[in-house]
Amino acid sequence: MSVPTKSPGDPGKTRRSHARANRARILDAAVTAFIADPDASMDDVARSAGVVRRTVYAHFPSREALVEGIADEASAALVAAMGDEAQQPDRPDLAVAVMALRTWPIGDRFRMLLSFARRELGEQRIHDLLGVVRDRDVRVVDHGQRSGVFSSYLSPTVLVALAESMTMTLLDQANSGEVQDSGESFAVAYLAVLGLTPADGARVVDEARHWLREHPDVPKS
After folding, report:
1. How far apart are CA 182 and CA 197, in angstroms?
2. SUPFAM superfamilies attached here (predicted)?
């Protein structure tokens, strides 16, 4: 008696893969739509994604859920961009510059969160979003203070909080076109908050760009 052979492929796996692809397409379309118009509707997002309205609602049952999905996507992208902590430079000033250059493109892509997610999700959600990198920043700044590289006029936690507020300001300025580089201004400003002169900060940022070129296996964005 012959044993029935299993048909190749896994229909369930295929459906899950298709659903993930649709979800990613919808999120990308939503980012684009909300950058163009913060009041874009779910229908606008569906048209931009090339799917029917029902597909959007299958993944995100409300506009708030869609905005939350974008925030979650931004959080995951930040984690991916940071890479493995063990792979960061040992020198704290260089580590800060590398982290700034890695994460700026993520903030730049999702900067429309500043224009409407604050209103729809609240300031606390934005604060929580940055929490995925905050602990590492605090550790690096603490190391820099203990080694004499960074100023100690404020605690590491307060300095990182200042840098986060500055990040919001710079992303707002990117929205208006005043900041147009790839994170160099952000990195120099961050290092200035930590006590480096702008000239020294610019030199460290140049080193960071070289370091990233030498470590292509480490995610940049």
Report:
1. 20
2. Homeodomain-like (SSF46689)
54 shares its domain with 69 = no
The runs of H, that is alpha helices, within the chain are 11-36, 42-49, 53-59, 63-82, 92-109, 112, 118-121, 123-146, 156-175, 184-193, 198-214
Asked whether residue 29 is domain-assigned, the answer is: yes
Q: Which of 82, 90, 86 is nearest to 107 (CA)?
A: 82
Q: Which amino acid is at 132?
A: V
The Cα–Cα gap between 85 and 95 comes to 10
Give the phi and the psi of residue 98 in degrees, each rounded to 5: -65, -45
CA atoms of 149 and 146, how far apart (whole Å): 8
Are 155 and 75 found together in one domain?
Answer: yes
Single pTM value for the model: 0.78
Q: What is the tally of structural domains in the chain? A: 2
Joined together, the tokens standing for residue 76 give 């995951």
Is pLDDT above 50 for 27? Answer: yes
Number of Cβ atoms within 10 Å of the Cβ of 174: 19
Specify the CATH number for the domain of residue 159: 1.10.357.10
Do 56 and 93 sit in the same domain of this protein?
Answer: no
**Nearest 5°: phi and psi at 9?**
90, 160
131/84 same-domain check: yes
Q: Within 13 Å, how many C-alpha atoms sit on residue 13's CB side?
A: 3
CATH classification of the domain holding 37:
1.10.10
Residue 6 has pLDDT above 70, yes or no: no
